[in-house]
Amino acid sequence: MPRPGGSRWVDPAPLEIARPRLPWWVLLPWWLLWIAVPVGLVVLLVRLVVRLLHRYPVVVLVPLGLLVVARRWGCWPLVFLLLVLVAVLLIWWGLHRSSFRRWVWWPVLSQWRRAGVYALRWRTTMRLADLAKRDRGREYRPTLRAVRSEGWRDRVRVRMIPAQSPEAWELRRDSLAHSFGARSCRVRVLRPRVIELDLIHRDPLLWPLPVPVLADDAAGVDLKRVVVGRTETGKPWRLRLLGSQLLVVGVPGAGKGSVLWSIVWQLAPAIRAGLVRLVGIDPKGGMELGQCPDVFDRLIFDNSADAVELLEQLATEVKERAARYRGIRRLWARDTGEPLTVLVVDELADVIAYQPDRQLRDRAARAVQTITSQGRAPGYVLVGLVQDPRKEVIGFRHLFSTRVALRLDEPQQVDMVLGDGVRQRGAAAHEISENTPGVAWVKQDGQREPERARAFHVTDADLVTLRDYFRAGEVRPFPTSGGAEGVAA
Ligand SMILES: Nc1ncnc2c1ncn2[C@@H]1O[C@H](COP(=O)(O)OP(=O)(O)OP(=O)(O)O)[C@@H](O)[C@H]1O
Question: What InterPro entries does the record point to (predicted)?
Fold first, then answer.
């Protein structure tokens, strides 16, 4: 209606209330509703049963089975069956605990934790942690998928909501751990939109690992998979030596020595057989490598000109061997008739960064760079141990294809050692406890996920055994014919 004094329009029905919105199914004919409602109910029921069976098979099927037995055959057969079941489980537990845990205990625990912890607290936690979102009256909530408990950790698979990134979860790792009653939480990306939360309840690497029995036969030494300890999942911790360069970083007392001596321990038969040559530089006056000098072909106990000359000599050998292999082979193998050379430098920074003589420092850095960048194919491996991972100390960390981060002081140091983004995937080397020396986060090139592991504890008594092992058997020259058979290279 036009206003008396102007041309503007007013709302024709200012007091009109919002029309009620009827659900769409109200408009359906009644006979269709009579058919659709029972069908819908049956579908819902079937879905519920399938879901229950899928998520809680043991919890649903075992009581159901027992109920059927009780109803069909009465009480005594049920008691008998229960006794047999308990006896079988006890015998299984006694005879083979690992398979019992895997096939009985973990599935039961998984279903228990799913129902009692995750399903129960999921909705509230997602809302309060701001991981669920509301848009136009609809709530988008991350979906709780499979839950697998392995005793020390629960693996909780999650489907994220649209427009959510794994970083949003990484930022809330602590709050998720507290909400679900775990000690810590790690986030792993499985595929687009699907992540897995590792909710850790206890540390499986709490106890030191004794070294295995010293092998006698070089045939068992696999240079691509040297076992130096155990990972937190219970598998052997294997380090690739052939075709790799290894950087081990950790604060004083973090257990760098145990990683080093675990490698030497496992290589011992191959060193004694002449298939591997060990060369060492220990600028700390031999405090570390001097504990078992017999394993080394050459050993220098300072960062003087001698150490630099040794590095330069090895760099020259690398170039010379690479020139000989050119066009013939791409990677060292035992049939070359030359040993794989493993150069161990304890406190690498003393040689290439803290050396006061600038000329020596530059020469050492150049030689080390040549060995790390070109030594892979001709069979030269550098095992560098470092306390301080700052950039000015090791400007060429990227040349090390395997990086081991033992206990570190700061989160930034973890990024420096393992590379960007690895800490966000859970590799919290700065959170490793002082009480667990030898525990490390390991990142190998080509392997997306970092691994947490603990090296063998090589005690002083073990080093005496190692010395005796070498004194008893003279180190032989490289076997050019059949003697090296079986050593995996
Ligand atoms: N894998 C291990 N398991 C149990 N204890 C270990 C392990 N590794 C080292 N230790 C213990 O931790 C202590 C420090 O170890 P180690 O000397 O190897 O550390 P480090 O990092 O080499 O120190 P530094 O830089 O001062 O030489 C030692 O008492 C050792 O017995």
Answer: FtsK/SpoIIIE/SftA, FtsK_dom, P-loop_NTPase
Q: How many domains does the chain have?
A: 3
Q: Which residues contact 301 (CB under 8 A, 6 or more apart)?
A: 282, 283, 285, 286, 289, 290
pLDDT over threshold 90, residue 405 = yes
Cβ 327 under 6 angstroms from ligand 1: no
ipTM, two decimals, is 0.96
Same domain, 153 and 80: no
Q: Is residue 487 part of a domain?
A: no
Q: What is the DSSP string of 34-71?
A: HHHHHHHHHHHHHHHHHHHHHH-HHHHHHHHHHHHHHH
- Would 34 be classed as within a structural domain? no
196 and 247 in a single domain? The answer is no
Inside any domain, residue 269: yes
How many angstroms does the Cα of residue 441 sit away from the middle of ligand 1? 16
List the domain range (segments joined by +) for residue 78.
54-95
Give the CA dihedral 293, 297, 301, 305, nearest 10 degrees.
Answer: 170
Same domain, 130 and 253: no
Decide whether any atom of ligand 1 lies within 6 Å of the 375 Cβ.
no
Confidence band (pLDDT; 50, 70, 90) for 411? Answer: confident
Pocket lining: 252 vs ligand 1, CB cutoff 6 Å: yes
Ligand 1 centre distance from Cα of residue 313 (Å): 31
Ligand 1 atom index nearest CA of 346: 27
* Pocket of ligand 1 contains residue 432 by CB under 6 Å: no
Domain CATH code at residue 453: 3.40.50.300
pLDDT at 1: 46
Mean pLDDT of the region 28-34: 87
User: Residue written as tokens 């709050």?
Assistant: 175
Give residue 487's pLDDT.
Answer: 42
Binding-site residue ranges: 250-257
Q: For residue 172, what is the domain's CATH number?
A: 3.30.980.40
Tokens of 101: 């845990």
Cα 238 from Cα 229, distance rounded (Å): 7
Ligand 1 centre distance from Cα of residue 211 (Å): 14
